[in-house]
Amino acid sequence: MYNLDPPLVTSLLAVQVPKGRRQICRYDDGTGDSLDVPLGTTAFFSGYKLYELLSEEEKRFIRTSKVEYAAHPYIWMSKAKSRSNGLGIVSEGLELSDNDLPPVDDSKVKIYPMAWKNPVTGNLAMMVYPTCIRKIHLENGEVLDDLEDIREKLYKMQRRGIDPNRIYAHDWKEGDLVIFNNHGVMHSIVGSFSESEVRIFRQCNMAASYAPQGPEEMK
């Protein structure tokens, strides 16, 4: 989310997959939610479905706002702690200061729409990477930069998208090839392994010739 645009398509090829048991993925976020998953699964959720779940007020906010991502995001957040359910970062002030980052080229800082438009169907997906977000730009020119408040606002909207009944957890078999729309679907590896269990995958990110497309102006 810095310098390079996110790939349009991502493929995952299962080379070696641990076998023989399943795991319970506990959200531990106060909801009591959990998900029975295959060992070494990849969990997917749809940004299109998430957008549909928003209220009309939330949809308008998403359609008319943009997100600014941190420079060198994975270095910037390297000391921060993830939420228990993996959806974003806990706000403890542990992000690195600008002085502790590699040199930053402002022209490489990415600002994207919060809603990404499918160029074929025209459908909108809420596609915001909560771990990397730094600011929100509103349509009136105001910039929100209170990181804790921004994270809470987004979390309240995105959390409904990872309800257990809205997750697809792929049951990998060696040789499986999964190809997905990286401008409409979000994914994460789930689970943990013993020392004897090995998971080997090959990932290919196919670059787009354009940045994520936002919605046409909607009032």
TrEMBL record:
Cofactor(s) annotated in UniProt:
Fe(2+)
Domain annotation TauD/TfdA-like: ranges:
2-203
**Coiled coil (residue ranges):** none
Q: Which Gene3D superfamilies match?
A: Clavaminate synthase-like
What Pfam families would the database entry show? Answer: TauD
**GO molecular function of the protein, one example?**
dioxygenase activity
What keywords would UniProt list here? Dioxygenase, Iron, Metal-binding, Oxidoreductase
Which superkingdom? Eukaryota
Family designation: Belongs to the TfdA dioxygenase family.
What's the protein name?
Answer: TauD/TfdA-like domain-containing protein
Q: Which organism is it from?
A: Cylindrodendrum hubeiense
